[in-house]
């Protein structure tokens, strides 16, 4: 019952619903999603996040692997890792900050550990958790880092694994065949803001307010976002000096 309430709450946040968790091209919230998108985006709800994280944890349990410690790849892996700890009854949760995806849809060539672990992992069995394996670079560099700290066994797990990943995690909540940029509940405003800036930079001829943005998000990204959430995201960008919002016109701030 609680999960159902969380799922419905998550859908309200973006005003978006995935009609099929296994297919990301098709009909969503009553409108057809074009295959000719600039950046295909898919939004997950809190309920879906919990379901995928629990499925990932149960696959670890079924395998017989019993980690002593869970290491979350920050930032995206923190919440899935905490759910894994809850399901598996693991008390020790550490995190390592890895830089790879600098902003929505753009990443560096290789993942780099920004803030390493400061722990003796000698003889420990460790499970490294992230939200998604996209290129696999973050998982690969973190796995090596944990081994260098003396871990006896290191296995990896993700909520989702894309077909584009060159690194295959030991456990995953689901495999995704069609590439998409996934918008998770913990970075709604970050992603919405970056996607808004991407639109304004790529299409300087666009003129409109948050309501027009909602239409452009469907057109260019294939995702339905409520005008309320876009208004909030635009207000944050305006406060931070990235855009100028005057009346019904949102434009980039000259730099």
Question: What tags apply to this protein structure?
Answer:
255 residues, alpha/beta, Rossmann fold, Arc Repressor Mutant, subunit A, 2 domains, six-stranded mixed sheet, two-stranded antiparallel sheet, 37% helix, disordered N terminus
Describe this structure in words.
The protein has 255 residues and is an alpha/beta fold. It has two domains: 46-176, Rossmann fold (3-Layer(aba) Sandwich), CATH 3.40.50; 186-252, Arc Repressor Mutant, subunit A. Helix content is 37%, strand content 27%. It has helices at 2-14, 46-63, 78-88, 137-148, 188-202, 210-221, 227-239; strands spanning 27-28, 31-32, 41-43, 69-74, 93-103, 106-115, 125-133, 153-162, 171-176, 181-183, 243-246, 249-252. Strands 6-5-4-7-8-9 form a six-stranded mixed β-sheet, with helices on both faces. The protein has a two-stranded antiparallel ribbon with strand order 1-2. Helix 2 (46-63) crosses helix 3 (78-88) and helix 6 crosses helix 7. The longest helix is centred in the N-terminal third of the chain and has 18 residues, at 46-63. It is elongated and about 60 Å long. The protein starts with a helix and ends with a strand.
Strand order in the sheet with the most strands: 6-5-4-7-8-9
Q: What is the end-to-end distance?
A: 50 Å
Radius of gyration based on Cα positions? 19 Å
Strand content bin: 25-35%
Order of helices and strands: HEEEHEHEEEHEEEHHHEE
Oligomerization: single chain
Computed structural class: alpha/beta
CATH fold type of the largest domain: Rossmann fold
Low-confidence stretches: 1-33
The profile of the biggest β sheet is:
6 strands, mixed
- Rough outline: elongated
Helix content: 25-40%
Top-tier CATH class of the largest domain? Alpha Beta
Count the domains.
2
